[in-house]
């Protein structure tokens, strides 16, 4: 019975890798509990070829193919520079969905070249059905917008560059 539940782990990990790609996420971490002392911890990351799996159960052979699924997701995204390390990077304070305008059809809050003052709304992140206005942490000019309207973001993801 325990083996049967672990057969789905490979498909589960492949689905996580696809989710990472489809939503342009940089890292995804999941803990799956099957019962007492029987868990699966998976972390898939794009920052390098980091894939961590930990199983505290007697069926590690079912998880062995897991690392092969994630590097495929990692291999085709090797950015030359990390926008999050830029000194003018504005990063996401939460996990959610990005909206670049107040409502569909309305003009975007900002675009490349827009002058912003500290506290101006840059975009909205919807998290748990709550619309959170993300303010500019400093004044300056929007140099790059790193996300698309409707995209999923995670905590710490670079959203835009303000110089």
TrEMBL record:
Molecular function per GO: acetyl-CoA carboxylase activity
Renumbered to this chain, the signal peptide range is none
Note whether Lipid metabolism occurs among the keywords: yes
Annotated Gene Ontology cellular component terms: acetyl-CoA carboxylase complex
A Gene Ontology biological process term: fatty acid biosynthetic process
Which pathway is recorded for this entry?
Answer: Lipid metabolism; fatty acid biosynthesis
Every copy of the Lipoyl-binding domain together lies at: 87-163
Superkingdom to which the source organism belongs: Bacteria
Q: Which UniProt keywords apply?
A: Biotin, Fatty acid biosynthesis, Fatty acid metabolism, Lipid biosynthesis, Lipid metabolism
Record's compositionally biased regions (Low complexity): 61-80
For region Disordered, the annotated ranges are 61-89
User: What is the annotated role of this protein in its UniProt record?
Assistant: This protein is a component of the acetyl coenzyme A carboxylase complex; first, biotin carboxylase catalyzes the carboxylation of the carrier protein and then the transcarboxylase transfers the carboxyl group to form malonyl-CoA.
Tell me the PANTHER family matching this sequence: OXALOACETATE DECARBOXYLASE ALPHA CHAIN
Q: What is this protein called?
A: Biotin carboxyl carrier protein of acetyl-CoA carboxylase
């Amino acid at each position: 019975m325990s083996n049967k539940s672990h057969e789905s782990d490979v498909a589960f990990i492949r689905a996580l890798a696809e989710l990472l790609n489809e939503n342009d996420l940089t890292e995804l971490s999941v803990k799956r509990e099957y019962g007492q002392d029987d868990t699966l911890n998976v972390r898939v990351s794009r920052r390098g070829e980091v894939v961590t799996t930990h199983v505290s159960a007697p069926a590690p052979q079912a998880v062995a193919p897991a690392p092969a699924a994630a590097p495929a997701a990692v291999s085709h995204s090797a950015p030359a520079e990390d926008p999050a390390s830029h000194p003018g990077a504005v990063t996401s304070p939460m996990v959610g969905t990005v909206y670049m305008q107040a409502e569909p059809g309305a003009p975007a809050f900002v675009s490349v070249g827009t002058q912003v003052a500290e506290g101006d709304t840059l975009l909205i992140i919807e998290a748990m059905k709550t619309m959170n206005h993300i303010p500019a942490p400093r004044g300056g000019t929007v140099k790059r917008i790193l996300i698309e309207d409707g995209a999923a973001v995670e905590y710490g993801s670079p959203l835009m560059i303000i110089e």
